[in-house]
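Predicting holo structure, NAP bound.
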Amino acid sequence: MSATIIKGKEVAAEMRAALKEEVAALKEKGIAPGLSVILVGDNPASQSYVKSKAKACEEIGIVSEVIRRDADITEEELLREIDGLNENPNVHGILVQLPLPKHINEKSVLNRISLAKDVDGFHPMSVGNLVIGDECFLPCTPYGIIELIKRSGEEIAGKHAVVVGRSNIVGKPVALLLLQENATVSIAHSRTQDLPGLTRQADILVSAVGNPRFIKAEDIKPGAIVIDVGNGVDENGKLVGDVDFDAAKEVASYITPVPGGVGPMTITMLLNNTVEAAKRMNRL
Ligand code: NAP
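Done. Tokens:
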């Protein structure tokens, strides 16, 4: 039997509708959730991401501001910019669009963002809190993945989850979140031996590599939940995931498509974190 397709686009739309209502209710109490995004330089991909984030904020009523700075800004100037946002009570979330120009130390910049406003969840202290299971803003893509699995109605606890990829923005944090949900977690990467042997044991398979269709149907355990984070382009220029979707959906029980799976959840969780930050700052 064919797998149930986890439609991230629909889940994201539902969540955004609920957030829109929450923002309206907060505004009635005199609280207008605000997100400030700093964009340094003119990287086209970064510009496009920032534009999508601003549009999404506008759609649900979050006050968003994009602070554009030239690529030759000094690290000191950028840090001062962040200090100003940290002190501004109308700003609840701060996001610095990465990558930054080479002369700026990304770690120093992320470190400067107030923990209470770290809606991207990339501050080293937020990462540490995630590791020890303390309250923190969860990084948006991993958070969106957990939300998709939970909303499928399937249990995570006790399952063997295999995460392929160990980046700081997806692989590692999603593995930690699955562990927090009481899955037994394996993390695979480019040096893993016999990857298919491992993925075939996965009740939950999360792939975050960026290699078009490299996970084949025969590498998937029958009935597995398959979450495809990869964004790749195939030989015909089509956007595809890490998983060979058409064949895999005949083996899996649940599967996310690319596009329309994990992707739409990322910005949604950023909106969610910004609303949460506004609530926490106002002790709600
Ligand atoms: P990344 O930093 O490039 O990490 C890729 C990971 O894949 C690395 O850990 C790497 O292992 C591993 N890897 C590479 N080749 C492998 C192989 N043959 N077998 C097993 N593991 C292999 O990428 P990322 O930032 O995590 O992103 C991963 C993918 O997700 C990309 O396609 C990206 O565009 C997409 N993405 C999507 C969203 C979204 O919102 N949908 C968000 C973020 C990322 P090593 O560590 O050993 O090098």
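The longest strand covers residues 34-40.
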